[in-house]
UniProtKB/TrEMBL annotation:
The chain crosses the membrane at residues 15-34. Its cofactor is FAD. It comes from Triparma strigata. Residues 44-147 form the FAD-binding FR-type domain. FAD binds at Y100, M122, T175. This is FAD-binding FR-type domain-containing protein. The keyword Flavoprotein applies. PROSITE patterns: FAD_FR (PS51384). One of its GO terms (molecular function) is oxidoreductase activity. InterPro entries: CBR-like, Cbr1-like_FAD-bd_dom, FAD-bd_FR_type, FNR_nucleotide-bd, OxRdtase_FAD/NAD-bd, Riboflavin_synthase-like_b-brl. Keywords: FAD, Flavoprotein, Membrane, Oxidoreductase, Transmembrane, Transmembrane helix.
Amino acid sequence: MELAALVENIPFETLLLYLSALIIPLLFSVYNLTTSSGPKYIKKEWDRYPILERRVISEGERPVIFLTVGARTRDLPTGSHVKLRIPNPSDPSRPIIKSYTPTRFDGSSCELMIRIYPSGAMTPSLYKLKVGDTLEMMGPTGLHRYLGSGTFTYGKKTYDNIKRIGMLAGGTGVTPMIQIINKIIEEEGDDTEVCLCCFNTTTEETLLEDELKEAMSKSGGKVEVKFFASKTGKGTTEKLSMRSMSGPGIIKLLGIKEGEEDSSIILMCGPDGFVKHVRKELKEDGSMKNIMIW
Ligand SMILES: Cc1cc2nc3c(=O)[nH]c(=O)nc-3n(C[C@H](O)[C@H](O)[C@H](O)COP(=O)(O)OP(=O)(O)OC[C@H]3O[C@@H](n4cnc5c(N)ncnc54)[C@H](O)[C@@H]3O)c2cc1C
């Protein structure tokens, strides 16, 4: 029997039922495709993304917050950062733009750790954000990349065959280091050794101590983390100021042995004074050629 004759013999109500069973799921799939369910992908143009979670992880004069932003960031390369933009009340033509390094990013969200400076142009506004508010963001930006298995790039420059990474982090300068540590722990074949030295002013200002200790214990010996405070030492935090360190002292602290300088790299991120001091000391020492600064 031909199709037309077959359709003619089916009662109208039954035909309607068959058609709706076919058409309704089809309409649903078209709707899902066109509305792109889930958060938007982060991109190089400014766009607004929702705050999914806000946590204060350290109180005090300069609190530290975690903001989880609903932005898909699967393609954000390890080592890169994002930019945030807020209006500038004193000059609307020049908005305030600052960089932040996500500590974690996955298929559906991106986590930022931000220290709030009460006199800051940007951070007091970030502190006021609530869950459900939106934030202007773009990225990824920056030239630092960790490609895995001991290979770094900075623009056109490549550092490869790196067996040991010495990380120096001043305060929130720990954020890019966390990204790299997470990548090394997650990648089974990546046996690059890491020694992260976190420097803060006081023990109370030490950031993510528990999380970093956990990362160290689940790294299978690949990652070592040391904590230092310039004013007070307590528990596992040693009293030590970066300003008192010489080049050879810094290299020794990071566990880089004589003869292993070329297969090692020093990464550093922190306040200007911190970075300036380390650069000067390492330059004077002259034995480390692989140095990357955020
Ligand atoms: C590549 C990159 C990645 C960054 N990633 C992060 C991150 O993940 N988390 C984060 O919190 N910040 C990060 N920063 C710093 C951030 O971009 C801002 O500079 C910072 O949040 C201060 O902004 P602000 O406008 O509130 O303060 P500003 O208006 O710039 O400064 C206000 C006051 O705060 C003091 N101050 C500012 N920054 C520091 C500092 N680092 N140490 C000591 N005193 C300071 C200054 O003395 C100044 O008086 C990053 C910076 C760069 C370049």
